[in-house]
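Researcher: Structure for this, please.
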Amino acid sequence: MPYDHRNPVTRSLPAALAALVCSAALAGCGAASEAAEGTRGPAAAATTPGQGRTPDPSPTPSRAPAADAARPLAGRTVVVDPGHNPGNFRHAREIGEKVDIGTARKECDTTGTSTNASGGKAAYTEAAFTLDVSHRLKKALEARGAEVVLTHDADRPYGPCIDERARIGNEAAADAVVSVHADGSAVGNRGFHVIVPAEVREGSADTRPIVAPSRTLGERIAAAFARTTGTSPANYLGDGTGLDVRSDLGGLNLSTVPKVFVECGNMRDPKDAALLTSGAWRQKAAQGIADGIVTYLQG
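Model: Predicted structure, token format:
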């Protein structure tokens, strides 16, 4: 997660009534002042004969702690990386060009997966899914005070390439980076998982400084995601932990800041696909990821 006119007192009123009106007006002003400054202690109400209110022995309580509680990510930067790009399928040559990921050379990007078209209903692409969840995630994080950077917003023909995605997070000096995805596995393979970086030190890749914090980020997101969405960790990898360690992803290998990939479910399984195509469930997915980021950044 994102501030008088007075009516004159009629001179024909008896003096006592005028005094009463004046007294009531003064009382009202005092109440408004206290409401604006916060509740005062009993000592604040004490008076000395012939004098006004005695000085408050303690400063007016600050509202800053409440503001901080409402915006726990104030001053933090989170990069949200929507996996793939809806335009990738029109730029096969460009996304097929290989880039250096430290351990090897790999395609700039891919088109991603999709649900199966059925019953006259078109397939729902991973690129559309990731962009939708990323928008929801951005809004949730900004509401909690974070500065959020998107690696793209379908505002470019294709990409960015996987090495550029990593570079965007690095140059933002992000406190956390989350790449949003959905898997394309076999029918019957269900559930979410979070991909965390393996220890890699080769070529331009050196993940040693980010392995431990990235794993912690992944664990926090996995726990919050399961709790918020009501879904289970993947039944086909990660041994039920919801975590998968990878050394072949350029977005992780080239990152110098804590980063994970969240595979929200399997688009090729009909039961998972029913969730992924639901706007209400995607809101839960975004909220779960946001909750995990908050618990990570708050330590």
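Researcher: Any notable elements?
Model: Confidence is low (pLDDT under 50) at residues 1-67. The two ends are 17 Å apart (CA to CA).
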